[in-house]
Specification:
Number of helices: 11
Shape: globular
Strand content: 5-15%
GO molecular function, one term: methylenetetrahydrofolate reductase [NAD(P)H] activity
Oligomer: single chain
Order of helices and strands: EHEHEHEHEHEHEHHHEHH
Bound molecules: flavin-adenine dinucleotide
Family: Belongs to the methylenetetrahydrofolate reductase family.
Radius of gyration: 19 Å
Number of strands: 8
Catalytic activity: (6S)-5-methyl-5,6,7,8-tetrahydrofolate + NAD(+) = (6R)-5,10-methylene-5,6,7,8-tetrahydrofolate + NADH + H(+)
InterPro entries: FAD-linked_oxidoreductase-like, Mehydrof_redctse-like, MTHF_reductase_bac
Protein name: Methylenetetrahydrofolate reductase
Largest sheet: 8 strands, parallel, barrel
Amino acid sequence: PGFRPSRDGTRPVRVSLEFFPPKTPAMEETLWASIKRLEPLRPAFVSVTYGAGGSTRERTHATVRRIVEETALRPAAHLTCVSATRAEVDDVIRSYAEAGVHHIVALRGDPAGGIGTPYAPHPEGYASTPELIAGIRQIGDFEISVSAYPEKHPESASIDVDIDVLRQKVEAGAARAITQFFFDNDVYFRYLDKVRAAGIDIPVVPGILPVQNFRQTAAFTARAGASVPAWLAQRFDGLDDDAETRRLIAAAVAAEQVFDLVDRGVTDIHFYTMNRADLVYAICHLLGLRPLAGQAQAAA
Ligand code: FAD
C-alpha cells in the first residue's frame, strides 16, 4: 500500500522472473548466462518450473540448488501434484527446505495423459492444489504462490469456477497468485475486478511473456488458457524470416504492455523469461531497474 511505480522509472516496479530447468548442457549454459545477467537487477524472486517425470524433477531441484549456492537470488520452486504419491511430494518439499528454499509455487499440474485428457489425481497423491498447499504448510514455513487464469483455465467451465478454486487456494494459505500470460490488459483488469469482488485480496501478479518467437507462442497459447489478439498477429505479420525486426517488435510490444499496467496501478510484474535475458533485461531497464554496481561488473 502506498507504493506506486512510475512510468519514468524513478519508482521502479518489483519484478520476478521465471525459468525452466535446462535439458541439455547447451541449454544449461544459456540459462546460467541469463541468470547471471539478470541477477544484478535484484528481482524480488526467481522461480523454476517443475515437470512430470523423475528426470525433469531432478533438474528443477538441481537448478534451484545452484541458484541458492551461486547467487544472491531468492528462489521459488514450482511443485505439482501430478503422478506422485503424497509421500513422494512430501520428500520433494523437505528437500527444498533442506536446500534453503522457502517459497513454493504450488500447482495441480496438467493431466498425466496430456492437455485435453481428463485430470485424475494419483490414488495416493494430493488431489488438488488446496490439498497440496495444506501438505506444504504441515511440513514447513513456506511462502506459497499459486496460478491464476485471467482468460480461464482451459478445463474450467467458467471464470467464476476458476475464481472459486482461487479462493480455496487462498483459504489453504496461498499468499500470491501469478497469472497465466495474457496480451490484452483489459482482460487482466476485468479478471482482477471479479477476484476483488469475490473478496480475494492477495496480490494477483500479472505474468508477462515477451514474445521471442511469435509462431511458437501462437501455437501454445490456447492450450495454456490464453489467446493471441488479432492486433498482435498483425504486428508480427510478414516477419517470419526477419528475426532482428521481430526482436525489436517484441521489445516494443512488451514495453507498451507493462507501461500500461504500471499506469493503471500495477506494482509487481512476473516475467516468463523462457531462459533468455535480453528482452527481459531491456524491459526491466525501461521500468527503472538498474544493476547494483559491483554485480554489474561481475556479470559483464
Ligand atoms: P488449479 O488452479 O488448481 O486448477 C485449475 C482449474 O482446474 C481450476 O481453475 C478449475 O477449472 C479446475 N479445478 C481444479 N480443482 C477443481 C475443483 N475442486 N472443482 C472444480 N474444478 C476444479 N505446470 C507444470 O507442470 N509445471 C509448472 O512448473 C507450472 N508452472 C505454472 C506457473 C504458473 C504461474 C501458471 C499459470 C501455470 C503453471 N503450470 C505449470 C501449468 C499448470 O500446471 C496447468 O495449467 C494445470 O493444468 C493446472 O494447474 P493449476 O495449479 O493451475 O490448477
